[in-house]
Recover the amino acids of this structure.
């Protein structure tokens, strides 16, 4: 019973975050909103990445319970030039064998889970995302890194947490 209540809490938090994110996104406008506006609505970023041309990208992670990671680019003029939800099949297709771990992390944001498999000499990064409008579209994207921290393979599967909550 305790586990069931915990999943309910995680689901509620996820829904509240999604609703807050949508409201915050609607209040921001590319080319007009400033970094201060972004931080006022989203808080402190998980990470700040250097972007081309002197811009910076603020990472806002919604893992492990959410299904989004946002990358918000601030131009050299201090204005927001892009706001992207990066956990999409289009971005996943850009993750190719040989790619460095840091490049994947920069593209997709912090994963929901990192698993190390010492005997296999592998590290798996997992991200939770939605591949459609329904809760049943919850999926997990996994990137497998070799011992040199380069992508060796990727895969997608149904989110087992979603499957468990639907069976109850």
């Amino acid at each position: 019973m305790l586990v069931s209540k915990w999943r309910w809490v995680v689901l509620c938090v996820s829904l509240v975050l999604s609703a807050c994110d949508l409201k915050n996104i609607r209040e921001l406008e590319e080319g007009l909103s400033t970094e201060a506006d972004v931080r006022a609505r989203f808080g402190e970023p998980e990470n700040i990445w250097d972007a081309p041309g002197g811009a910076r990208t603020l990472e806002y992670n919604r893992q492990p319970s959410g299904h989004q990671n946002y990358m918000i680019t601030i131009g050299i003029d201090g204005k927001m030039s892009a706001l992207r939800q990066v956990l999409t099949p289009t971005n996943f297709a850009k993750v190719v064998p040989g790619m460095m771990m840091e490049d994947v992390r920069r593209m997709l944001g912090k994963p929901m889970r990192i698993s190390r498999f010492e005997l296999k000499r592998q590290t798996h990064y997992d991200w939770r995302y939605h591949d459609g409008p329904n809760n049943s579209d919850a999926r997990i994207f996994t990137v497998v890194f070799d011992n040199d921290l380069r992508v060796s393979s990727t895969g997608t599967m149904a989110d087992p947490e979603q499957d468990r909550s639907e069976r109850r």
Summary: Residues 1-17 have pLDDT under 50 and may be disordered. The helical segments are 2-26, 35-42, 89-92, 101-108, 160-167. Residues 97 and 159 are 23 Å apart (CA to CA). The chain has two domains: 2-85, 89-167.
